[in-house]
Amino acid sequence: MKTQVAIIGAGPSGLLLGQLLARSGIANVVIEQRSADYVLGRIRAGVLEQTTVDLLEQAGVAARLHAEGLPHDGVELCFGGQRHRIDLLGLTGKRVVVYGQTEVTRDLMDARQAAGLPTVYEADEVTVHGFDSATPHVGWLKDGVRHTLQADFIAGCDGFHGVCRASVPPGAITLHEKVYPFGWLGVLADVPPVSHELIYVHHERGFALCSQRSKVRSRYYVQCALDEQVAQWSDDAFWAELKRRLPDDTAAQLVTGPSIEKSIAPLRSFVAEPLRFGTLFLVGDAGHIVPPTGAKGLNLAASDVGYLWQGLRGHYAGHPAELDHYASRALARIWKAERFSWWMTSLMHQFPDAGSFGHKMQRAELDYLVGSTAAMTALAENYVGLPMV
Ligand code: FAS
Ligand code: PHB
Prior knowledge:
- By secondary structure, the chain is α+β, with helices and mostly antiparallel strands.
- Helix content is 37%, strand content 28%.
- It has helices at residues 12-23, 36-41, 50-58, 63-68, 88-92, 101-114, 235-245, 248-253, 297-316, 321-324, 326-348, 355-371, 373-383, and strands at 2-8, 28-31, 47-48, 70-72, 75-79, 82-86, 96-98, 119-120, 124-129, 137-142, 145-156, 174-189, 198-201, 208-212, 218-224, 259-273, 276-277, 280-282, 288-289.
- α1 packs parallel to α6 (101-114), α1 runs parallel beside α9 (297-316) and α9 packs antiparallel against α11 (326-348).
- The radius of gyration is 21 Å and the shape is globular.
């Protein structure tokens, strides 16, 4: 078998890239280790930047997003028992859209299936070879049969734990990483959101986030220790802890209910450099990870895809140099989002070694932030997403 682009991973990166390439007449095959249902069952991101919405429109998969997505003109920061609104639209002229990653993935899967594009789910022992040679190819095992796919290029859209980055010789790649001393315990529940906009909470007991998926489905998070297990957290214990971190009047408005998903995610900042190795490209979480505090993970994956799509279109249109810009263009935007995500995480979470001075610095920055149009504008323009250049 042969194709132009072999895409490893059917998460948002792989499926969005496959859709954009197909609509540009570039043949591609997606190879995914899990089942489609398993991929859809992962509850992750919830906030889309306009740049991501634009790419989904170009991919022809934005109809449901426009029908069901919730435009948000602002977000709130809550500290010292007070809620402060950051007017995203007023400060930047832009807004974000709340629409779950699960729905983005579902829309992309449906479009790929409708187009009859080749997709291999539950592929075992996926391997990538020859990406530094003239014969790049991918191998996998499916139903006891070994398969090989020749390709011009391999897109490593296989996430943080994937095979593609792991296949790069250690001497050819530099890894930059910061692991945070806490995680996020997240709950999804079919209850109306406590507020029409997101609330990021700084509290002495720990960070909390009030988010949502629709007007009847909410997503909440509380900062937790790295050694905590989901099994330790009953629904009642979660709701009680969330209420402790909210102002009394907000806590009184919180509608609770049974969790339909509950999970703990560790937080890290991570970037691999470069992102290109011959004919292999690292895309999305395969190349970088951000703490979810800045709502950047999914959106960075989308902008990587946009840059790679532009590069591959240029290549097949007779301008191979276009591909040379992928890594530098993607990394320029990645590092700015890494900085913002690190800054939001450092500002909003309780760090075990911060001490009283560290707590005072966080509080002073928050007090300054909500009193300064310049500071709120800086937060807002990063939160709505910096332009793709
Ligand atoms: P993904 O990890 O989504 O997809 C990679 C795909 O590759 C998976 O389907 C995997 O099964 C497959 N794969 C892996 N190894 C393979 C192999 N060897 N062969 C074939 N396939 C393979 N971002 C936010 O913006 N907000 C959030 O709140 C948020 N919460 C998150 C919570 C968690 C627990 C995690 C892990 C991430 C979260 N993120 C969040 C970030 C997340 O949304 C990612 O940015 C997004 O999924 C990136 O998409 P992909 O790059 O496609 O990677
Ligand atoms: C979510 O809704 O899952 C979400 C929203 C904003 C974030 C992180 C997660 O910063």
